[in-house]
Amino acid sequence: MTIKVLAHKASFACLGIALLTAGIGWAEIRDQADPLTFRLGLTEPVFVDTAQGVPSLSFRLADDIWRDAPYAGGSGGQSLDFTYQITAGDFAPAGVVLNNTIALNGGRIVDVAGNPVALDFGPPDLSAIRIQTHSVTWDNAVISDLQAATVFFTLRDAPPGAFFDYTITPGDGAPAGAGGGQTGTGRVSQATQQIGPLDLSSLPDGPIELALILRDGAGNAGAPVRASAVKDTDAPTGQGVAFAAGFDPIGANAVTAVSIVLSGLEAQGAYSLEVSSSGGGATVSRSGTATGDTVELTGIDLSSLPDGVLTARLVVLDAAGNAAPGVTATAQKDTAAPAGYSVAWVTDPVNGGNVTAAGIQFAAAEIGASYGYTITSSGGGAPVAGSGTVASA
C-alpha cells in the first residue's frame, strides 16, 4: 500500500494553496484561529484505532519549530485528515515542511485485513503554505503634541527570536527620511512587545502609517502588517467663557445656581473650568467632554466663595489632548445685604410752602444699590412711594 498527499487545505491564513483556493495572497491573511488540514490518500481503505492514542503528522515552521496535526477523521475510507489549529506565534514565511511519516502515538492504522499500514510517504512541496499570526498597533491612535516625541507601538503574537524591520511614513506618501519618517529594526523578545519611544515630532500632522515585516533566522520575510494613527499637534483656538446674562452682579438670590457659557469648543474635546474670588477661598471646578461648539453650565453653586470679583478660567483640550491657553471672564459677587445707612428729612417741618417739594436724604448708602421708600401720615391718607438707584454715598 502507498500513501499520497491528496491535498493540503487551509483557511485563508495559510497562503498560496492554489489547489483548493485560487488567488490567495498575502493580503488575505486571517487570524490564528484558522485550521490547517492535511489529507493523505491511500490505495485502499484503512481503519484508525484511537483507543490507546491519536496518530498525528508533524510539520516544521520557521526556525525549526515543529507542530503536530492530530488525526481528525477518515477512518474506513481511502483518505485520512490531520488538522492543526493555527495559534498565536506561529510563523512560516517560507512555507511548512511536512514530516514524511505518521506518528501513531499509541494508536493503530490497519487495512481491512487488520494488517498495519506502512506509515512513510513522499512529502509534497508545501512552500506555498505560509503562516503568520502577528500584528502591530499604535499605542495611541491619535498622537498629540505632548506625545509626538515619545511614541510607542506594540507588536503582538510574533515568535520570540524572530527579527523585524519597520517603516513609518506620513500619510502624504513621502518615503521614510524624506518627510520626517523613519525606519528601524529589532528582535522579538516576548509575545507582546512594546517598541519605542520614537520621536515623530518632525512628521507633519495627519495620518501616520506603520508597516512592519517579520523575518525568520534564515532571513525569510513575512507579509507586511500595518497600522495607522493620526498626528494632531495643533492646539484649539477661538474658545471663550462668559457669565450668562443676568449673572453679573451675582446676588444672594442667584449665587447657588449660576450659569456660565463656554464657546469655541471642539466636539469630543475636554474642558476644565475653575471659578475663584478676589476675596479668597477654595476654587469651584467643573469639567467634562464637549458635545458641540458651545456648552452652557448651569446650576453652579458659588455660595462658598467670598464676595468680590469672581474670575472664571477655562482651559480647553481637543480630542487629541492638545491644550489651548486659558481664557477668563469676571463678574461681581455681592450677597451681603446693605447695612449702616440712614435716611433723614431734608424738609422738616413739611409745611404749606414745601409740601409739594419735600425732600429726604440717604447717608452711608451703597452706591449702585436699589432703594424703595414709602411715606405715610399719622393723619391717614394714601401713602406716597418711590424707588431708584443710589448714585452717591
Description:
0% of the residues lie in helices and 42% in strands. It has strands at residues 3-10, 35-42, 46-49, 56-60, 66-73, 79-85, 91-92, 97-98, 108-111, 131-132, 135-138, 142-143, 151-156, 163-170, 182-187, 192-198, 206-215, 225-231, 240-243, 258-263, 270-277, 284-289, 295-300, 308-317, 327-333, 342-345, 360-363, 370-375, 384-389. The N and C termini lie far apart (121 Å). A hairpin with an 8-residue loop joins strand 28 and strand 29. It has 393 residues and is mainly beta. The chain is rod-shaped. The chain has a six-stranded antiparallel beta sheet, with no helix packed on it.
The helix tally amounts to: 0
State the helical fraction.
under 10%
Percent strand equals 35-45%
Distance between the termini: 121 Å
Strands of the widest sheet, in order across it, are 1-2-6-5-4-8
Query: Major sheet: size, sense and barrel closure?
Result: 6 strands, antiparallel
What's the average pLDDT?
A: 84
Characterize the overall form.
Answer: rod-shaped
What's the order of the H and E elements? Answer: EEEEEEEEEEEEEEEEEEEEEEEEEEEEE
Number of strands: 29
> From the helix content, strand content and strand pairing, which structural class follows?
mainly beta
Q: Rg to the nearest angstrom? A: 41 Å
- Note poorly predicted spans: 1-30
